[in-house]
Design a protein that fits this description.
alpha/beta, OB fold (Dihydrolipoamide Acetyltransferase, E2P), FAD/NAD(P)-binding domain, 3 domains, 7-stranded mixed β-sheet, 5-stranded parallel β-sheet, 25 strands, about 30% strand, disordered C terminus
Amino acid sequence: MATTEVKVPDIGNYTNVPVIEVLVKPGDSVAKDQSLVTLESDKATMEVPSTVAGTVKEVKVKVGDEVSEGAVVVVIEAAANTPLPPAGDVAVAKSQSSPAPPSPQPSPASGRGGESGAPQAAAASGRKADIECQVCVLGSGPGGYTAAFRAADLGQNTVLIERYATLGGVCLNVGCIPSKALLHAAKVIDEAAHAKDIGIEFGAPKIDIGKLSGFKDKVVAQLTGGLAGMSKQRKVSVAQGVGKFVSPNEIEVEGKDGKKLVRFEKCIIAVGSQAVKLPGFPWDDPRMMDSTDALVLNDVPKRLLVVGGGIIGLEMACVYDALGSAVTVVELLEQLMPGADADLVKPLATRLSKRYAGIHLKVKVAKIEAMKEGLRATFEGEKAPQPQLYDRVLVAVGRAPNGRSINADKAGVQVSDRGFIPADKQMRTNVPHIFAPEHGLLQHHAGDGAP
């Protein structure tokens, strides 16, 4: 029988692209267009599919090798009566936006490549499963949905658990995306104000909060809707509700339609983080806000106190300043954006000090009292200001991982006191078939399948 060399195709200007996964071994039967190896550049993940159906005779690369256009990755002995590709024809790489056709899907009781799954542990709860799958992903943020789509592209029966009505997690729904939409509006207002420096003068902006909020919501809806379409295209099942482990191979999802039991062979934990709420503050008062509340834009407060001078706090401070609020920022440490290069922060701090009502460093908010006329904040520190009244207070002192809110102990997964889930370089937790993204450092704005 004739043999065919499958080569790395034209991948643009990239050379020495690492091989991150070899999907076949000598003796395997492969279908035409079945993925053989996976390459990863700094821009995309690409899969090299087979150009013919047949049997793998030789694998020319291993994980860690670097390849360029024209390199032979696999030699295939073509099946009888299979037409060979034209001379010089090579495989077409698949980017993340155009995934390779999946390999034939294994049966639910087996893992990819013939690995045995975990059906022997499946009935740990003694209950009948409502949903069974090979891969379960808990949380649909950037860590979760990319993992789910990748698993589906590899032919795995995949279920994605998300507590919110739309995919995308904190980042797309109440984090990076809506905040950047509002920052765009703030930038337009700022640029219009400075246009007079070059001889173009506009009148004072008129803010329509309803339309501005609608613009933000439209941006979010476009992206979350795109994720829903990609999920449907890949046949990734979505279970909406709060997911918690009940055993090493089961997660109970509680949603508006009641409780469902998801039984899986492998699980990826991508439950992200939640805003930290400082104790002792009157959180039952609607004038108190975390970063999620600040994106709602019910009104523009005349006086806004931002507790925390990090990235999230300053982003929302910029938005509300542009909309007309008198903004005061209080930071416990000695500079804004703690941890960033002081030389880079200095010009930003100088600029903001001219715009904001006040920036107080090395100052602590000791107490906030809810009063009829406003929220009264009391401060502590060497240069602490006198107690003042504010119309709203935004607390943006960081985010905490959700690792301790998913009953991980019932799956045997170790979780730190702070809620982080330790994992090795292959993102494996201490339970071999359960994984966590980013080596256990739950992503800052990742999806949130947990409460």
